[in-house]
C-alpha cells in the first residue's frame, strides 16, 4: 500500500503540472481527492493491515493528500494569473482614441413650461410645495369648501380607490395641507406644481392625466388687484411683454369672487383670428380670492387674513406657447415631435 500511495502522488503531481486550464485542474482534484478517488479507496483497505502499520499508512496517506492539494492550489493560482493577464491583454484600451459623442436629449415642452413658471415665481418670493398624488377626500374636497354631496364635485369626475381615498383631481390639496402647516399664521406664498387625474375621455384637448400649477397667497392685506398684477406678470413672461389680460366673473367653490382669466391673442394681437376664434382673447386659467370658509377650515382668521389663488394647466400654456394642436403629442413619446423643441 505504501508503494501504491507514492505512485499515486507522483502520477497526480505530473498531471497537475501538465494541466492547461482551470477545468482540467478541477477534474484532477476530483479524480484524486474526491470521495471515489484512489486515495480514499486505499484508505478503505487499511482495515486489513496490522495495528502497527495502520498509523504509519494513515500518516502517509495524509501526506500524499496534502502534497496533491498543495500542488493543485499552487497550479490554480498560476493558471488564474495567466488567465487574468490574457484577459487584460485582450481588453487593452487605446486612451488616445477620440471619445464617442454622447447624444443629449431635449427638455420636454411640459418640463420647460413648468420650470419657466417655477423660476418666475421663485423670483417673486414664492416657495414650491408638493403633496401626495394619492389623496384623501378631506383635503381634495372638504377642506376646499366642497362637502360630501356638493354638486360641484361632479365637475371633477374622480378616480376613487376607496370611499375616502382617490387620485387627486387638482393640486389644491397641497394648498390645504400647506395652510394647515402654517397653523393660521401668515404670510403664505406658494406654488404647487404636480400631476392630477380626472376620468376624462382623451382627445385633442383633454387627458385623464395632466400637469397643474396652482398658486396661493395669504396675508393681512391681499386684494384682487394683487391677483391681477401677479397674473399680468405671468402672462407677459409666458406670451410676450405686449400681452394684456382680462378677468371675467366665474364660479369655483374654493374662491369668492372667482374669475376666468383671458390673455390677449398673441397670434393676432387682439384683432381676431382662428386661434382666438375671432374674439381677440384666449382663456388661460381660473383664479379668485380664497373663500373665507377655506381660510377658517385651515385655521386662519378670515377677518384678519385674505388671500388669492390661481390654477394653471401646464399643457394648455405649452399648447398656446408652442402652437401645439393636440394634447396627446405630449404623451406619445414621438421623437419627431420632441426634437422640434431643440430649435424652439
TrEMBL record:
<dbReference type="GO" id="GO:0000287">
    <property type="term" value="F:magnesium ion binding"/>
</dbReference>
<keyword id="KW-0963">Cytoplasm</keyword>
<dbReference type="GO" id="GO:0006432">
    <property type="term" value="P:phenylalanyl-tRNA aminoacylation"/>
</dbReference>
<protein>
    <recommendedName>
        <fullName>Phenylalanine--tRNA ligase alpha subunit</fullName>
        <ecNumber>6.1.1.20</ecNumber>
    </recommendedName>
</protein>
<keyword id="KW-0648">Protein biosynthesis</keyword>
<comment type="similarity">
    <text>Belongs to the class-II aminoacyl-tRNA synthetase family. Phe-tRNA synthetase alpha subunit type 1 subfamily.</text>
</comment>
<keyword id="KW-0067">ATP-binding</keyword>
<keyword id="KW-0175">Coiled coil</keyword>
<dbReference type="GO" id="GO:0005524">
    <property type="term" value="F:ATP binding"/>
</dbReference>
<dbReference type="InterPro" id="IPR006195">
    <property type="entry name" value="aa-tRNA-synth_II"/>
</dbReference>
<dbReference type="GO" id="GO:0016740">
    <property type="term" value="F:transferase activity"/>
</dbReference>
<dbReference type="GO" id="GO:0005737">
    <property type="term" value="C:cytoplasm"/>
</dbReference>
<dbReference type="InterPro" id="IPR004529">
    <property type="entry name" value="Phe-tRNA-synth_IIc_asu"/>
</dbReference>
<keyword id="KW-0479">Metal-binding</keyword>
<dbReference type="GO" id="GO:0000049">
    <property type="term" value="F:tRNA binding"/>
</dbReference>
<keyword id="KW-0436">Ligase</keyword>
<keyword id="KW-0460">Magnesium</keyword>
<comment type="subunit">
    <text>Tetramer of two alpha and two beta subunits.</text>
</comment>
<dbReference type="Pfam" id="PF01409">
    <property type="entry name" value="tRNA-synt_2d"/>
</dbReference>
<feature type="binding site">
    <location>
        <position position="256"/>
    </location>
    <ligand>
        <name>Mg(2+)</name>
    </ligand>
</feature>
<dbReference type="InterPro" id="IPR004188">
    <property type="entry name" value="Phe-tRNA_ligase_II_N"/>
</dbReference>
<dbReference type="InterPro" id="IPR010978">
    <property type="entry name" value="tRNA-bd_arm"/>
</dbReference>
<feature type="domain" description="Aminoacyl-transfer RNA synthetases class-II family profile">
    <location>
        <begin position="111"/>
        <end position="320"/>
    </location>
</feature>
<dbReference type="InterPro" id="IPR022911">
    <property type="entry name" value="Phe_tRNA_ligase_alpha1_bac"/>
</dbReference>
<dbReference type="InterPro" id="IPR002319">
    <property type="entry name" value="Phenylalanyl-tRNA_Synthase"/>
</dbReference>
<keyword id="KW-0547">Nucleotide-binding</keyword>
<dbReference type="Pfam" id="PF02912">
    <property type="entry name" value="Phe_tRNA-synt_N"/>
</dbReference>
<feature type="coiled-coil region">
    <location>
        <begin position="65"/>
        <end position="92"/>
    </location>
</feature>
<dbReference type="GO" id="GO:0004826">
    <property type="term" value="F:phenylalanine-tRNA ligase activity"/>
</dbReference>
<dbReference type="InterPro" id="IPR045864">
    <property type="entry name" value="aa-tRNA-synth_II/BPL/LPL"/>
</dbReference>
<dbReference type="GO" id="GO:0140096">
    <property type="term" value="F:catalytic activity, acting on a protein"/>
</dbReference>
<keyword id="KW-0030">Aminoacyl-tRNA synthetase</keyword>
Amino acid at each position: 500500500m505504501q508503494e501504491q500511495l507514492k505512485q499515486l502522488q507522483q502520477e497526480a503531481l505530473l498531471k497537475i503540472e501538465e494541466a492547461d486550464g482551470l477545468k482540467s485542474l478541477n477534474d484532477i482534484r476530483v479524480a484524486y481527492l474526491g470521495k471515489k478517488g484512489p486515495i480514499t479507496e486505499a484508505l478503505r483497505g487499511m482495515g486489513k493491515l496490522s495495528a502497527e502499520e495502520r498509523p504509519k499508512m494513515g500518516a502517509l496517506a495524509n501526506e500524499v493528500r496534502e502534497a496533491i492539494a498543495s500542488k493543485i492550489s499552487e497550479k490554480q493560482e498560476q493558471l488564474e494569473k495567466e488567465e487574468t493577464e490574457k484577459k487584460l491583454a485582450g481588453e487593452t484600451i487605446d486612451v488616445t482614441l477620440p471619445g464617442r459623442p454622447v447624444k443629449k436629449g431635449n427638455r420636454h415642452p411640459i418640463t420647460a413650461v413648468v420650470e419657466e413658471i417655477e423660476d418666475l415665481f421663485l423670483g417673486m418670493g414664492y416657495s414650491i410645495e408638493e403633496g401626495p398624488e394619492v389623496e384623501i377626500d378631506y383635503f381634495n374636497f372638504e377642506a376646499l369648501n366642497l362637502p360630501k354631496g356638493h354638486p360641484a364635485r361632479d365637475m371633477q369626475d374622480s378616480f376613487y380607490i376607496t370611499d375616502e381615498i382617490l387620485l387627486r383631481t387638482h393640486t389644491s390639496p397641497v394648498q390645504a395641507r400647506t395652510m394647515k402647516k402654517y397653523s393660521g399664521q401668515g404670510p403664505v406664498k406658494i406654488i404647487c406644481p404636480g400631476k392630477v387625474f380626472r376620468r376624462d375621455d382623451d382627445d385633442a384637448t383633454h387627458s385623464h392625466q395632466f400637469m397643474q400649477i396652482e398658486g396661493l397667497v395669504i396675508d393681512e392685506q391681499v386684494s384682487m388687484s394683487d391677483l391681477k398684477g401677479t397674473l399680468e406678470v405671468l402672462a407677459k413672461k409666458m406670451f410676450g411683454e405686449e400681452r394684456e389680460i382680462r378677468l371675467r366673473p366665474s364660479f369655483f367653490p374654493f374662491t369668492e369672487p372667482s374669475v376666468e382669466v383671458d390673455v390677449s391673442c398673441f397670434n393676432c394681437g387682439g384683432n381676431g383670428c382662428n386661434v382666438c376664434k375671432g374674439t381677440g382673447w384666449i382663456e388661460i386659467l381660473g383664479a379668485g380670492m380664497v373663500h373665507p370658509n377655506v381660510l377658517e377650515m385651515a385655521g386662519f382668521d378670515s377677518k384678519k387674513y385674505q388671500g388669492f389663488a390661481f390654477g394653471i394647466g401646464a399643457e394648455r400654456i405649452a399648447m398656446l406657447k408652442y402652437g401645439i394642436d393636440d394634447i396627446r403629442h405630449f404623451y406619445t413619446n414621438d421623437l419627431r415631435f420632441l426634437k422640434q423643441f431643440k430649435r424652439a
